[in-house]
Write a structure and sequence with these properties.
The chain is an alpha+beta fold. The longest helix is centred in the C-terminal third of the chain and has 20 residues.
Length: 227
Amino acid sequence: MGMEGKLRQVSEFELASFRKDPAKAYEKVVSRYRSPEMTRFMEKMKELQFSPVSKRLQARAQAGQPLDPEDLKAYRAEADALLAENREAWAEVQSLHLGLSKDGLELSLHKSWHCLHFLLTGKSWEPVDSPLGKAIMGGKEIPDRQGVMGYGPIRYLTPEEVRQVAEALAEFPIAARASAFDPVAAEEAKVYVPEHYAEELTHHFDQLKGFYRDAANKENAMLLWVI
């Protein structure tokens, strides 16, 4: 799946417990990806991907040949049946990887997180000590003592920092910056997935701005991570 940027609102009391016992923070984040229902659904998805009809379609596509209509029909029927039998798990997969979760407390920026950070700060991997710099890649680390994460520890922002980020995002001139965005400059700065259209950047920015506004109104803290 690659590197996906995530944010989750937590109460000030939850954050205090996570700082006291970091394992609780990682259980909170990782457990959603390891539920029995999710595991079974992902296994079935993998079986579909490597089914005989899927392999035939992949082989013809790789050879530059037209896809067999009957194989394509059969594959679509199998996929539709799988999704129909696992509606709740499929909805959970979508909420984990695309946009706002069902409970409204977690936001996935998918693979646009780094490009959006570059748009906000003009920097790629360098730390930026400002509210806009903290919005996606900021925060203090919660120690990953069990080595759970592959792309660095979970980080957190306090409720006061969340408020500052929300105010900075509210004032950010997204229309002008998104229209002036240069994918070539982003690629030269080694931004992950630099190819983004202005509409995509604006969409993800609006999600981020609304998410921080909601968190600030609730006086919540924020967890941030890449998975």
